[in-house]
Automatic annotation (TrEMBL):
It holds the Pfam family G3P_acyltransf. This is Glycerol-3-phosphate acyltransferase. Pathway: Lipid metabolism; phospholipid metabolism. It catalyses: an acyl phosphate + sn-glycerol 3-phosphate = a 1-acyl-sn-glycero-3-phosphate + phosphate. Its EC number is 2.3.1.275.
Amino acid sequence: MADPLALLLAALGGYLLGAVPFGLVLTRLAGLGDIRAIGSGNIGATNVLRTGRKDLALATLLLDSGKGAIAALGAQALAGWSGAGWGTVAPAVPVVAGVAAVVGHNYPVWLLFRGGKGVATTLGVILATAWPVGLLACLTWLTMAVLFRYSSLAALTALSVAPALALALAERPHAAGFAVLGLLAWWRHRDNVRRLVNGTESRIGQAAKPASAAAAPPPDSDGGSDEEAR
């Protein structure tokens, strides 16, 4: 059993790290204004790509993934340093930190809880806590993205298979945590699912449109005329 205090600290630290809005920070530093004013209004790499800056989109993807991985590995390292030992830290500790990081990305306190959809951060968490599952999930995402060109479909497929893979390749806390992340992803992509069903979902790389009041919902909603999945 994990120490309740360790779980609490892992959750708090993971949330605060996950809440750093790298997509928004990078686009503002690059002089592109507020990323929330274009496309879906979200702060993830897919929406950053719609600015036409592939370098910024890649940097956002790596940083968003990295903060999930660092949250999980940092929690495990700190728990081990406190005396439990790296190999004896309960797997729930890094998993809880990782889940909290995704929640922080999706609902960052700094942006009035209006964030992204957490796919890159989730994949970072999975890679850090159960790398075989993470590699297979990334391969699933890449395959679906290449075949269908829908970021939302690729993300939901990858995160849906992760809990089952974890049951075979990791431990129960991993499977439980990945299931929570999968459900959260489905919730954040609920409008994308409706557009996929209706055939109106946009494809990866589609040019950005202003997220005006008439053409798109406010940035705290999950709507918009694209498949933002980060």
